[in-house]
Design goal:
- Strands 1-2 form a two-stranded antiparallel sheet.
- It folds into 2 domains: 108 residues, no CATH class; 142 residues, no CATH class.
- It is mainly α.
- The longest helix is centred in the first third of the chain and has 25 residues.
- The chain has 16 helices and 4 strands.
- The relative contact order is 0.11.
- Helix 3 packs across helix 4, helix 5 packs antiparallel against helix 6 and helix 6 runs antiparallel to helix 7.
- A hairpin with a 2-residue loop joins strand 1 and strand 2.
Amino acid sequence: MHWVEWVFSGVGVAIVAGALGLIFRGGRGRRKNSDAARSNGSVNAESKTIGDRSVGIQANGNVTVQVGLTVREVRELTRELLDSNFPKLRDDAMAAARENVSEFLRLFEPALARRLPSINQERLRDPDIQFTLNDAVMASARRGRDANADLLIELVLARMNDPGPQASLMSLACAEAVRVVPRLLREHIDYLALVGLFHWGPVGHLTHDIRELDGIARPYLPLVENINIESGWHEAYLQSLGCLTHPPGPSRNVGRSLLQSYPGLQIHSPDELMRCIRNQTEAFREVLDAYVALQMDDVELTLTGDVIAHARLDQVAPGSLDFLDFCLGAVP
């Protein structure tokens, strides 16, 4: 397989080249017959340069060509990047930065393997994609867990997807989200996800029993556990980062939206539905109460906020709202 030639050096490039190289080459061991031939001295290989950055190889036996970087080489390049970018750090801070990048790599490799069928290798030729990956890695080196590396990885991989109807716009939105996410606390991310959950309409289907709402809401309980409902600074801070707006005009009405989302409940007014939810549900009531207490009917997510919210919801309830489909334009 012909592999892309990297344009820039850096740990981001090293991680992608190394991880993809390990996965795409289909096996970590060398061919046994090649090893045997080499040990018996039956392979007489000759390397000859045939052009700019091209090498011709002649041999009387099998030749194994390794594509991509080994894990050891990735780690060495990672250390070199840190040494060059953080020359003035104290030893303990340097060690922490290296550990943070190692954690990023530990999360990156399985995520990459999971998204592999949808990744377009040609996108890796784009220096903008490589810069986005380096942004994510450097943010993780600086802030560790506070950089929200798991979310950064999903955003980076989304930029590598095959093109969809809105690919260019969504790719730019993901790049902007990569710059914003390290500046958010986890509760800010959960705030955006909670707004999106109710603005897009809660997922799931009901028959006629309102208590089924608890099953729909239960995966989203971690969102409200992290949010300080008494804080009034979420909205202002998220507005300053371009994640949401406070538009003029009439606000949304969550009761009316829920009534439209679940017509099978046979309830005839938003107020009646809200009373039934508070009297007959637990998990859904807890999620809804947080939404109402934070007055989320009054705000709207920007495209950057949409991207972050979708990525987070796909984490807390996998399969309910696919982030990849959203980035490809399949989810409104």
